[in-house]
């Protein structure tokens, strides 16, 4: 039977009590946000006639998401990460800080404290000899085209099976994770392996939510970046390797036209030797443009829970 009780004074008074409006302590902002959130959910229960079975199944699902630390995986799937990016883009526009390489989502798989190298490094531990060798390079510049020497370029990506070190126990510590400080010309260079795309674990609570929406949980092959330098706006971004079937069908909504990079396969002994490589490789070039800012709060990444962040900082 359909009943509508949301707009009754009893329910409205009850909401005020639940949100702590009649209590002196606590946070005013928390009270207002929780009141709004609960009001929207109470109304939703009324409007959709949510049954007790549906409600408790959802609580069970949320417990499973928490147990598996999967909220950080579901959040991009539900578009929250991209929505926050859209808001930050709009804030940059309003501040006159638009321009430069676009941001895109961080994702939940960064690990703080990766080894730091000057100008050039190798990111893979050499244990995966079947993978395609990647030569990843680029120049960091400001929006006037001047090279930024000494910029911190943090890079992390999956292996050829789509797994990330630290979260995938089969990989060595910090495999495919490095921080490179750009040289005098603002350049960074890294030997690594071509990453694969990956999907949310089959049958996981995140997968079940996406399947209920008729969606998949796949991501195209990509490489994550944090780039920072004094006097410049911190940039969180990713590049997508062109040609992946999921390029424009990323469950996490991270793809941006400007961040699509075509790898160039090179099978030339002299070119390989010039980079200290032994055989054929794929060169991936990603140049980065940073906007300038004097505001210190814009020069570093925003706070969020990150693996080993406390230990490293
Ligand atoms: Fe990723």
Automatic annotation (TrEMBL):
Its cofactor is Fe(3+). Belongs to the intradiol ring-cleavage dioxygenase family. It holds the Pfam family Dioxygenase_N. It is an enzyme of class 1 (oxidoreductase). It comes from the Bacteria. The gene is catA. Residues 136-164 form the Intradiol ring-cleavage dioxygenases domain. Keywords: Aromatic hydrocarbons catabolism, Dioxygenase, Iron, Metal-binding, Oxidoreductase. Its EC number is 1.13.11.1. This is catechol 1,2-dioxygenase. Pathway: Aromatic compound metabolism; beta-ketoadipate pathway; 5-oxo-4,5-dihydro-2-furylacetate from catechol: step 1/3. It catalyses: catechol + O2 = cis,cis-muconate + 2 H(+). PANTHER family: DIOXYGENASE, PUTATIVE (AFU_ORTHOLOGUE AFUA_2G02910)-RELATED, INTRADIOL RING-CLEAVAGE DIOXYGENASES DOMAIN-CONTAINING PROTEIN-RELATED. The keyword Amino-acid biosynthesis does not apply. Residues 294-313 are annotated as: Disordered. Signal peptide: none annotated. GO terms for molecular function: catechol 1,2-dioxygenase activity; metal ion binding.
């Amino acid at each position: 039977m359909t009943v509508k009780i949301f707009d009754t004074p009893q329910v409205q008074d009850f909401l005020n009590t639940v949100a702590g409006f009649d209590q002196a302590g606590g946070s005013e902002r928390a009270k207002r946000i929780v009141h709004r959130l609960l009001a929207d959910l109470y109304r939703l229960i009324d409007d959709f006639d949510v049954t007790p079975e549906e409600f408790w199944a959802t609580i069970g699902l949320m417990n499973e998401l928490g147990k598996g630390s999967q909220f950080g995986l579901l959040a991009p799937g539900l578009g929250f990460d991209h929505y926050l990016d859209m808001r930050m883009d709009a804030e940059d526009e309003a501040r006159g800080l638009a321009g430069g390489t676009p941001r895109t989502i961080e994702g939940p798989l960064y690990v703080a404290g990766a080894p730091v190298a000057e100008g050039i490094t190798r990111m893979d531990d050499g244990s995966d000899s079947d993978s395609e060798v990647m030569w990843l390079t680029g120049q960091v510049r400001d929006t006037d085209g001047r090279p930024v020497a000494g910029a911190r370029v943090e890079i992390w990506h999956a292996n050829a099976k789509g797994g990330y070190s630290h979260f995938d126990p089969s990989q060595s510590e910090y495999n495919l994770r490095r921080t490179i400080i750009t040289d005098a010309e603002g350049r960074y260079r890294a030997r690594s392996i071509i990453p694969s795309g990956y999907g949310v674990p089959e049958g996981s609570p995140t997968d079940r939510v996406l399947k209920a929406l008729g969606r998949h949980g796949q991501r195209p092959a990509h490489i994550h970046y944090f780039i920072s330098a004094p006097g410049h706006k911190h940039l969180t971004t990713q590049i997508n390797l062109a040609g992946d079937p999921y390029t424009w069908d990323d469950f996490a909504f991270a793809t941006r036209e400007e961040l699509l990079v075509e790898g160039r396969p090179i099978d030339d002994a002299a070119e390989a030797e010039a980079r200290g490589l032994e055989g054929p490789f794929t060169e991936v070039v990603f140049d980065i443009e940073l906007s300038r800012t004097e505001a210190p709060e814009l020069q570093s990444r925003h706070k969020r829970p990150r693996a080993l962040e406390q230990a490293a900082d």
